[in-house]
Amino acid sequence: MAISPTLPITLHTLSNRSAKQLLSDLTTLYVTHRTCISRTVYIALFAALVHRIRNAIKEQKAAAARAAEARRRGPTLSSGGGEVTTGSGRKKVELNREFFRNLGRLLRICIPGWKSKEARLLVSHSVFLVLRTLISLYVAELDGRLVSSLVRGKGKAFLKGLVWWMIVAVAATFTNSMPSYHQTTLSLAYRTRLTNYIHNKYLHNMTFYTLSALDDRIKNADQLITVDVSKFSNSLAELYSNLAKPVLDLIIYNWSLSRSVGGEGLFAMSLLVQLSASVMRALTPPFGKYVADEARLEGEFRFQHSRLIDYSEEIALYAGHEAEKDTLDKGYFTLIKHVNRILRRRFYHGVMEDFVIKYFWGALGLMLCSVPVFFKLPSTGTGGAKSDHTESFITNRRLLLSSSDAFGRLMFSYKEISQLAGYTSRVSTLLEVIADIQRGHFEKALVSSASTEANASVLSGRGELEEGEDIRFQDVPIVSPNGDVLVKALSFHINRGDHLLIVGPNGCGKSSLFRILGGLWPVYGGKVRKPPSEDIFYIPQRPYLSKGTLRQQQILYPDTLLDMRAKGVTDRDLIAILQSLGLESLLGTHMHNSKAGYSIDSLISPTDTRASRSSRQETAGLDLEAEWTDVLSTGNQQRIAAARLFYHAPKYAILDECTSSVTAETEKVMYDEAKRLGITLMTVSHRKSLWRYHGWILQFDGQGGHVFTRLEAEKRLRLEDEREELDLRLRGVPEIEKRIAELEAGG
Description:
By secondary structure, this protein is of the alpha/beta class.
């Protein structure tokens, strides 16, 4: 093959040419074909973007299909201890379609419409973000002019520019402060909306009870509502600023830079930045999952302390402080171990980010800023003076620093998005579980002693529930909180006025029966007819007394003063109720609230007339505030519960050992007055003195059986007395036989 004679000459010519001349020729060649190169680059960029979006959509569709398949399979029972687990296991926090769907759902709650306060705040926030970017762009140009005047030695122009700089600074500082104010205000607005929404759901139809009693997917609802909602709101408000501002800055600053250094150079640098950013993203730990796990461990640790406070007396009596200390130390150690792991990961990740963002990208930026100095491009102007180069370099450098800072904040926002994903997952899980519970779907780990499969079939069923004036149970299974079926088919029927006594050993199903009557538990089978929940009143052995006044928080609870007036009840009626129960001492002027620091006398104005003062003195005790659980004895607490019952006067009342700490005289007053008010009584008690107040008895044997029959109190008392007498005689038989044996031996 012949070699062209011109090739050695060309190589020799290239070797003799300097690198600067070669670079100049390449620049000239680039400028000549710049239009074609630009179009090729932008078309390739657009094609790569479309390809990436298509791949992302395909991945999200595949993930959604897997999640739908897992939901279709539904919950399954584990073969070990009968624990209910879902097919998908624990949720994995990812930036996927589920995250955006959950975030969109929460956003519709936080921003209910474009005319809402939150939407107006968001628009105002956006306006100030744009103004802040435009002012920063103008300040960059002003900075270049000042340095140019300084290099040229024009003192008058420099001083004039400096004065104008200070004037612009006034508007700039105000504009720079407004986004922070809007961010905080938005966070509070989001939290208010979300908290109100959750409270309406959580405190509706006994959801707060069923969430903890019938479902174990949410271990610490208080942590989610108080802490995680706040963190989600803060993260969401911060994320808008940390995303919208950097994106806007990147667009405006890069557009300004492209006018000075050329769009292709900017694209080349952006390509290198994207490559390094992809490497960083691949090496970034799953901070979203870490945040969700940390919040869960924080909630569990807090729950352990709350449990210690709730059961402090029992733990103290058992001397279980060492065991509780071990449990708390273990919970804290697990939490701190996880936090330290996050800190180590963040340290290594921070070192990598700092090097890439500050130094590697800074070097690329300096190379980009040098383009107008060393090369003459059509878009960079014709100025060739040193001062012009200085002004251009300073302006471009300022724009590049701002653009780099914006891109850095955009990169850092990936961690913030991951954290937001963690908070979004936890808050969304709470809302999903609440919605499931309100639809009647529960998931609970079964730890019953019986067959898990047999109990699961009962728990998965649902019976019929209808409202009526009477109470009828027909073949209704009674289930314990841990999943044991205590009674397979309970059947009984009472009408108004048929007072029912319920007896049986502990754990036989009495409390579960009351939970069904109160509407707390679902009907797992059979048929139940009962009055509405507001017509059934429940009084436990230790009643619930909240902090507040004697009138509203104790006697009227859960009614308000408006409800009391609507019923036509006056303060004198309440005083009469208290006096009938022997609680008039609570109304005396000698009562003093040591915690609040005032007595009843302080509630009476010295300017009142004698008549109004006397009337006010009679009712002033009802306004006394105290922590009544600490102030009153157990017996007086049960009397307060009876006063609450007399005020409400429901159609049915469930009395669960509610007279265990009162005298026989007070017990008689309570039952006589309740029957006089037309209240049908359903009593759980083993006290024989209460038999005469009831006409029916429901007796559980503790083995799954029950007897429902009419109660003849006098006859039953005679039989019971006879049985006790026979028991006493039988206990004396061994002594008699022993004595007979001694007499026979002595004879």
